[in-house]
């Protein structure tokens, strides 16, 4: 690729589609390239509700952060945070409390750079480049230790990112490790790609999933039961359990939104035991 973009960090390969940029495009953002847009159009052709799924997921994220803020949570660790777009976690959390702390984490250098530039001048929101599959690199990151008080509740957000973690990378163990230092009244937020409701939909979704095999982050689709099984006994699922994003505490003006069974979401609470690192 011969194009050059001032905002692209050195060493980033923009000749292959990337999950953060594809999702940015799906939500109407501008930090994406021809290869991401073409990828998205192919996926959408196979799976026409893909954009609605992306929007339902994003709307869930906002509602979950608002709900947790109402429960008194003031620290948010947003892993797989993506390229900033509408309704970013710090905007929602700091509306409830301007001193709410938010640490964004992403593996994509462009997502990290765009977040950093958006957060300039915000003393309570930061971003680091790190990998969900290496939880100690997040928990022990100097910026995380500096920003968070682990004697207070923390919400760990894994929103539209666990489906990039195959079983071989032990997602159950990763979530357990991330939960270990958290005190009770801490929470884990999950959203995850699930199977479509109809055989035709599942076939179309399977074709779109195969497209992702060509990206650095192939996708794993998990059923409700498989998503619930990502949690070991250090977390308990909060009502309504694992449900479609549109069914999770919808705002009154969202009650007419079409159900999106492929966006599975859940909120879980850390069980009341002594925390320890
Ligand atoms: C679909 S976006 C979701 C963005 C945001 N959480 C949301 O739901 O609106 C998924 C993000 O996860 C990031 N990601 C994928 N694998 C990751 C990993 N192992 N560690 C950290 N981030 C990862 C991608 O770079 C991308 O920005």
From TrEMBL:
<dbReference type="GO" id="GO:0008168">
    <property type="term" value="F:methyltransferase activity"/>
</dbReference>
<feature type="region of interest" description="Disordered">
    <location>
        <begin position="242"/>
        <end position="264"/>
    </location>
</feature>
<keyword id="KW-0489">Methyltransferase</keyword>
<dbReference type="Pfam" id="PF04672">
    <property type="entry name" value="Methyltransf_19"/>
</dbReference>
<keyword id="KW-0808">Transferase</keyword>
<dbReference type="InterPro" id="IPR006764">
    <property type="entry name" value="SAM_dep_MeTrfase_SAV2177_type"/>
</dbReference>
<dbReference type="GO" id="GO:0032259">
    <property type="term" value="P:methylation"/>
</dbReference>
<protein>
    <submittedName>
        <fullName>SAM-dependent methyltransferase</fullName>
    </submittedName>
</protein>
<dbReference type="InterPro" id="IPR029063">
    <property type="entry name" value="SAM-dependent_MTases_sf"/>
</dbReference>
């Amino acid at each position: 690729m011969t194009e050059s973009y001032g905002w692209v960090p050195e060493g980033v390969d923009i000749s292959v589609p990337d999950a953060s940029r594809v999702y940015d495009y799906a939500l109407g953002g501008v930090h994406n390239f021809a290869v991401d847009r073409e990828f998205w159009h192919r996926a959408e052709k196979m799976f026409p509700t893909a954009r609605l799924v992306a929007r339902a997921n994003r709307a869930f994220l906002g509602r979950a952060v608002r709900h947790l803020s109402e429960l008194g949570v003031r620290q948010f660790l947003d892993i797989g945070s993506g390229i900033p777009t509408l309704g970013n976690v710090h905007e929602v959390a700091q509306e409830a409390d301007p001193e709410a702390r938010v640490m964004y984490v992403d593996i994509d250098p462009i997502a990290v750079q765009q977040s950093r530039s958006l957060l300039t001048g915000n003393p309570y929101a930061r971003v680091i480049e790190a990998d969900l599959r290496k939880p100690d690199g997040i928990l022990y990151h100097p910026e995380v230790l500096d920003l968070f008080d682990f004697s207070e509740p923390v919400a760990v957000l894994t929103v539209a990112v666990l489906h990039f973690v195959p079983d071989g990378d032990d997602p159950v163990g990763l979530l357990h490790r991330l939960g270990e230092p958290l005190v009770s009244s801490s929470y884990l937020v999950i959203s995850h790609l699930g199977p479509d409701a109809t055989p035709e939909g599942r076939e179309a979704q399977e074709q779109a999933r195969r497209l992702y095999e060509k990206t650095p982050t192939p996708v794993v689709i998990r059923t409700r039961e498989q998503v619930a099984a990502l949690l070991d006994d250090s977390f308990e699922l909060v009502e309504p359990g694992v449900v479609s994003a549109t069914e999770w505490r919808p705002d009154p003006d969202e009650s007419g939104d079409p159900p999106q069974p492929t966006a599975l979401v859940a909120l879980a609470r850390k069980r009341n035991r002594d925390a320890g690192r």
